[in-house]
Structure formats: C-alpha cells, structure tokens
Amino acid sequence: MGEFDLIERFFKRPARHAALGVGDDCALLQASPGTQLAISSDMLVEGRHFLSTVDPFKLGHKALAVNLSDLAACGARPLAFTLALALPRADAAWAAPFAQGLFALADAHGCELIGGDTTQGPLNICITVFGEVPIVGGRSQALLRSGARAGDELYVSGTLGDARMALEVFRGTLSLPADVFEAARSRMEQPTPRVALGMALRSIATAAIDISDGLLGDLGHILKQSGVGATVQADIAASRVAARLQCSDFAPSQWRDWALAGGDDYELLFCAPASQREAVAAAALASQTAVTRIGQIDAERGLRLLDGAGQALPNTYASFDHFA
Ligand code: ADP
Ligand code: MG
Known about the structure:
Elements: H1 3-11, E1 35-45, H2 56-74, E2 77-87, H3 92-108, E3 112-120, E4 124-136, E5 139-140, E6 153-157, H4 162-171, H5 178-189, H6 195-200, E7 207-210, H7 215-226, E8 229-233, H8 234-238, H9 243-246, H10 252-261, E9 268-272, H11 277-286, E10 291-298, E11 302-306, E12 312-313
Parallel strand pairs: 2-3, 8-11
Antiparallel strand pairs: 1-4, 2-4, 4-5, 6-9, 6-10, 7-9, 8-10, 11-12
C-alpha cells in the first residue's frame, strides 16, 4: 500500500461542512459571518507522549482529544482539523483502528478531517484544529489566559491526577489495584476534551486554560498573563483525584502531588467573578461536566497553597517542560 492508497482508504471522507476537503492542494473552510477562527496544533511523538504499545484506536482518540481540549479552553466550537502523520510503514493493521478512534471522537464533535500530510518516518502525529468563536458587540467571546482579575474564583473541571497515576504504573514506580489502574489508564489514554463546558463558559469565565502540564504549572500561565496571583486549596484539588474514591492507600501529600502537578489531565482550569457562581453551576449542568471551586485570584502576585486546615503548604511543584 502506498501513500495515496493509505490516505484514500483511511483518511479521505466526503466533505461535509468544509467547502473543499481532502484531495486538492488546500482545503477550503468557509468562516461563518460574525465569528473568529480559533486555531491550535498539538504534536504527539512516540516514546514522549505515548507508549509504543498503546492501542491505535485510543491513540487516534487522544491525538484529536488534546487538540479539541485547546479549542475548549478558548470556548471555541470545533469545525475541522488537519492531520500530519509520519509512519514507519503503511500498515493497515495500525491505520484502520487509528482512523476509527480518530473519527469516533471527530464525529462526536462534528469536527471534520479536511487535509493533512503523510510521510514515512518515526511515528509522529500532528493535528491542527480549527474552531469558531462568536464576536458579540464587536468583541470576541474567546476565553483567554489573560483575563483573570483579583477577586475571581478559580475552578477546575472533572478529575485530576489519574492520568499521572497510570503513567507511574507503566513506569513501574507505582502499583494500584487492577480496577483502579484500569480507570486511571482510560483517563490517560482517552481523555475527554471539555468542549461543551468551554462553550458554555463564554461570557461567564474571565480566563481559561486546559491542563496538560499540571494544574499549578498551567495556572502559572494564567497568573503571568493576567498579572495576578492566586490562592489554591490543595486538599480540595486533591479530592478531585478519582482514584481516591476507590483506594485510600496513599498519604495526603501524595494525592496533592498528583492533583496539582500530575499533567495530561485535559481538564479546564478557569476563573469567574463570584457574582457568576450560579452561571458557572448552570454551565456545568448544561454541559454535564463536574466543576469544583478550588481557590481564588488575588491582587498580590505569586501562588499560595493552603491545606484543609488553612495552613500554608510549600509550593515545590514544577510544571512539565520538554527541555528542562
Ligand atoms: P501536496 O503534495 O499538495 O502536499 P499531498 O499529496 O501531500 O498533497 O496530499 C494529497 C491530499 O491528501 C491533500 O489534499 C492532503 O491535504 C491530503 N492528505 C494527505 N495526508 C493526509 C492525512 N493524513 N489525512 C488527511 N488528508 C491527508
Ligand atoms: Mg503534502
């Protein structure tokens, strides 16, 4: 099977909303009037972002999920994506389930594959997603990292830390009961992009980011770009580690570590004024996504961590950095 057969067989589908899909030199996307395009790319490299043994169906899901998560963090509605793929071999046994996992998530979000590139090389997957955000009264409704204000409350969606726990099991540094591991593993391999929540938070949240490198590390980006500080209730964040409900084998500090600096969570971390508490709850309900208030934004710069008794905890957490 050659390059063009591979594209034809696994990745070419009739264009739906796009004006032109796979098959020409460019795809054509018609932007709706009164909207802005939101664009984001994420690359997944074997051995760095995923294990070589991962099920290709799940990898197809994850490659798109991490990109949709960026659209979610902007409050954008997914429209389309491109797929740049380097593969060691044109292997149907790999491409078929990969495409199935990819399209299952794509179809669930009405996001269509409109083009890409395919080359021989070490397994590497790069997706670029395109979404749209309305402009209302001349103002974009995109959620940015820079909008947090002192007095805002800080929220996180879903659960934290479970993906990191699964990774530690794969690394051989942690052991978990089998059912706990399976649940954690599915959070690592098939994260849920919080697209509906992101869209529901437009005009409610003042700032948002998706958590890929750990809660505190990603919070740092909001604080820096907004010129503010924050206080985080570490034990409330730690209570969001789903595995904690099933096993109590670890010390509180360990749960905090996974929640605050686990990484690969793909949950939304966002800020909203206290006056919007009910609106945040309504957005959570409408999008069927749990949200938890974990702290507040302060005028005083820096990050303060408190335990359940209100005592200050040292902040020794570093964000993930590929080149550190
Ligand atoms: P070009 O040589 O003009 O870059 P290609 O021969 O690389 O075009 O690709 C042919 C068509 O197939 C293009 O429309 C391109 O967008 C599409 N395509 C290539 N690889 C993929 C892929 N992995 N998934 C979806 N579309 C792809
Ligand atoms: Mg090309």
